[in-house]
Design a protein that fits this description.
The structure holds 2 protein chains of 2 kinds. Chain A is an alpha/beta fold. Chain A has 15 helices and 9 strands. The chains are: A alpha/beta, B alpha+beta. The interface of A and B includes residues 59, 61, 89, 150 and 181 of A.
């Protein structure tokens, strides 16, 4: 498959720089790999500066600094400054934990364009329980400071069965904090979220009720706060056009320098993802097997191969196909045409069973200790 | 004038032609060499602009109102009758928060 579509490759537009897997929080829906604690050798400052330069030269323009918690990297202001000089629009994706007013000012002066703060719940007890850390009041304070210092403020709330009933309060909280954008991200079931799916996946009724509330609110705050609603694809009939098409738009660099076509792709077996320590970003994007693997339509099996919608959704998400069917070449079972659609129904049934069960399973928190146990 | 695709849902807001217009300090308008076009950058998103849209937005600089933008661009492109196109785009730009 590699090399067959090289002449149609579009340049990356989005670079997600996962600076570190270190995080003071322990959210059980984290998209980081389960074995993050065994992945070491974080890239050096010099490596990151080079990666930013190379990706920008190819056309990347949106840059996300993520993690883990990117604030744990002491060189963040240096990277932000370099990004600004190169002309990136840079986004800091943070839990807010460890953020100070002095840091907010320092990053602004370095050229950071926006800060996205995540809050787990509008209720202190649940926020702190999900984060695995007492952080609620501090997060709200950070959100206010971000706003006060002239950044566009994006509030991100990941939605799942533990907080979906709080939708109205979530919206009011975002409005009270003066968020310019609110991202309501229904949990995507990869990494730790996949592990905790039975405890996190809401019922269809819960989804529909929450979505109706959010849509109505969208009208109410039009012109003041933009609401991004990340749809829950387990209750859809067609899969998401994952990453806007593999290797077309998005490039993720993991903390150790592994280059990924999507941030979950290191879960895929046999996909040998290249590393920026060995190859230039240009060579990775154009010539690596991993980035060429799902480009075009040659890799497709039925029913995708002959599907008239294949150019719209590209067969959906390969990570989801792998996690639900064991084969990343299969159609994403989020599609009702998938012969493995039953896997989605089983997941929904299993989660409902857990929610109604007297001895429901506990959440497994994302921390180095659990990572080591699970990976061994 | 071709407007970007994601504007279909927009409800146009009233435009006051005498009010001075400013491009939002929260966004960035910049030339992208690899795309050979101007873009508006905002948190986690981008809108690609065509030449006329760019010319209008560049004049939302805190010293022009809609009437003045109209006069300047009709003169620059030596083309009368642009009022509907330019005012229409400005209404959309205001609605999207690009201009206030």
């Amino acid at each position: 498959m590699a090399g067959s579509v090289n002449d149609t490759i579009t340049p990356p537009r989005w670079l997600l720089a996962e600076l570190t897997y270190s995080c003071p929080l322990q959210c059980p829906y984290c998209a980081n790999p389960i074995n993050f604690a065994s992945i070491r050798n974080e890239l050096s400052t010099e490596d990151w500066l080079r990666v930013l330069t190379e990706a920008r030269a190819m056309g990347a323009v949106q840059l996300g600094f993520s993690g883990g918690e990117p604030l744990t990297r002491q060189d963040l202001p240096v990277l932000v400054k370099h990004a600004r000089e190169l002309g990136y629009f840079s986004n800091l994706i943070t839990s807010g934990y460890g953020m100070t007013e002095a840091k907010i000012v320092e990053l602004k002066e370095a050229g950071l364009d926006h800060i996205q703060v995540s809050i787990q719940s509008p209720e202190k007890t649940l926020n702190d329980e999900l984060a695995g850390t007492e952080s609620y009041e501090h997060k709200k304070e950070v959100a206010r400071l971000v706003k006060r210092h002239g950044y566009p403020m994006v509030l991100c709330v990941v939605i799942h069965r533990k907080n979906i009933h709080q939708m109205r309060d979530i919206l009011d909280m975002a409005s009270d904090l003066g968020a310019d954008y609110l991202e309501l991200a229904n949990t995507q079931y990869y990494g730790w979220a996949h592990l905790n799916r039975d405890q996190l996946l809401p019922t269809k009724e819960q989804f529909e009720e929450a979505e109706a509330i959010a849509q109505a609110y969208k009208e109410k705050v039009k012109g003041k706060m933009k609401i991004y609603y990340v749809v829950p694809d387990f209750y859809e009939n067609r899969p998401k056009a994952c990453m806007n098409g593999w290797g077309t738009t998005f490039l993720t660099i993991a903390p150790d320098g592994t280059a990924l076509p999507c941030h979950s792709a290191r879960e895929l077996p046999g996909l040998l993802c290249p590393n920026v320590k060995d190859l230039s970003v240009h060579d990775i994007w154009h010539h690596s097997d991993a980035f060429n693997y799902f480009r075009g339509f040659e890799w497709m099996k039925e029913p995708c191969r002959s599907c008239p919608e294949k150019a719209k959704d590209f067969g959906g998400c390969h990570c989801q196909a792998y996690l639900l069917t064991g084969d990343m070449h299969n159609a994403d079972p989020a599609c009702s045409l998938s012969p493995d659609r039953q896997r989605v129904y089983e997941a929904i049934f299993s989660a409902r069973y857990d929610s109604e069960s007297a001895d429901a399973k506990p959440l497994v928190f994302r921390n180095p200790k659990n990572s080591k146990v699970l990976a061994s | 004038m071709n407007l970007p695709d994601d504007l279909h849902e927009s409800v146009k807001m009233a435009l006051d032609p005498s009010k001075t217009l400013n491009f939002s300090p929260m966004l960035r308008l910049q030339w992208e060499e690899t795309q050979q076009k101007h873009v508006i950058l905002y948190p986690e998103g981008m809108v690609e602009l065509n030449v006329p849209s760019t010319e209008i937005l560049k004049l939302c600089d805190g010293s022009h109102n809609a009437e003045e933008i109209l006069v300047e661009l009709e003169s620059k492109f030596n083309q009368p009758g642009l009022r509907n196109d330019i005012f229409g785009f400005l209404e959309v730009a205001i609605e999207n928060g690009w201009v206030s």
